[in-house]
Fold:
Amino acid sequence: MRDRRHPPSANSPWLDTVAAWVLALLWLLPLIYAVWTAFHPSEYSAKFTLAAPLTLENFRRAWEAAPFARYFLNTTLLVALILGSQLVLCTLAAYAFVRFEFRGKNVVFALVLVQLMIMPDVLLVENYRTMSRLGLIDTLFGIGLPYFASAFAIFLLRQTFKGIPKELVEAATMEGASTLQILRHVYVPLAKPVYVAFALVSVSYHWNNFLWPLVVTNSVESRPLTVGLQVFSAADQGIDWSIITAATLLTAAPLLIAFLLFQRQFVQSFMRAGIK
Amino acid sequence: MNARQQAHAWLLLLPAVVLLLAFTHWPALATLIDSFLSTPKPNRPSVFVGLENYAVMADDPIFWQAVRNNLWFAAVTIPFSVGTALAMALWINGKIAGRGFLRLAYFTPTVLPMIAVANIWLFFYTPDYGLLDQIGGAFGLPAHNWLGSTSTALACVMVVTIWKEAGFFMIFYLAALQGINPSLREAAAIEGASRWFFFRRVLWPLLMPTTIFVLVNAVINAFRMVDHLFVMTRGGPDNATTLLLYHLYEVGFKFWDQGYAAAITMVLLFSLATVALVQFFVLDRRAHY
Structure:
């Protein structure tokens, strides 16, 4: 956020600079430590010397010790499935709230907002029963289903759609565009930054989500990475920290790399999603 | 509003509303009902038992331990993570050397999976071998089983939580700070106001809505952040780090006690509803000046 509209505020005294840097290094310390351990042979995992040889051996062994390729595939499919459903369903719902007057509108909106407070995590016992009635235990669809309708997305898109000038909609109506055509050609393109913001937040959330997937899955075929990692590190590896940290970094790598590459978009997306 | 419009609106809303009802409203209601029923067994369907599940809960020392732990957890992690977040945002918003790097360092924990970083922290805390004991050892301190002793385990878990959350909350403060008119600072500088005075009298009141928003999120997180427990402590030692949601998981999916699990869920729902009502009726009124 090197924001050029506002001149940076008053010079920080050197004490602030030192404190900020110390905190930053502390914040990075666990990650630096993990990188050290993962890229060096295990006898160096707690010995810090510049002479330690670099190696990718830990990653290879971790990759072979558990079906991480399958876990990666599962998580990728899961995240895509959830995001796709959220974007479609929540766009339609938000559009209904903005474009139409209908009986019970405020009640329905209030019901939507309830989910902002009570996330599916807390209701996992009942949701597990629902999934077993539907026969969706241990399926990717079953992991994703409770998240398909996101109150957060509906709220965010509704706020955005509300800010779109009426003149644009009227012009499109004059040209004979249908309700859905207006959504597709006027609202959605203008809300693009918000879609990007929501997508990043949603992907980070579901890539990292753990408790609900842990509960509904019980096989390699449907386990996402987070659960796979937990199963892997909980099974006694002879506590070889080098392999466990390598597996840990593998799990976090896609998001971490994406974040390092698109740092500004990430931060701005979380910001945009938070202000509304 | 004609019938055609009404039909359109409902068609658009239908899929989202059905899913929300099925996975938020219905389970909340079903939990309430289940909390008054016994847990079904293969040869014995569930029957109405009144408040028995709640009585079991009240007699369960682990439940009370989880409540106490959760209250401590909230009381420590919320002020520390919000305070740290504010300090981070003030630094990054100022003209400080290496802003880009600082922002990166602070925000990185937010994008990492909790389950993954818990592994790293577990190693960090490992007796003798872990970084914490190695640093301590360099200063001649004895090794300590940080996660294995009841006196330090919960504190260790709290540190991880603060580390994970602060950068996330920082973002909201940063957004708010960038929306504050810079001429306010110039005016304060001309008047000769001190930095502390400017913060206390100008910034802090202007940041109040953000603080409330962040606080509400921090409270919700205090009830649902349990991922790291699965890796670091499994609620132990001796339930010293059992939080409510973790206890719920054990009752619901290890002991498969559906009735009791429903009662615990009701406690969580009640807590979250209280947060929502306080936010709606008290804080939102006071946030605007």
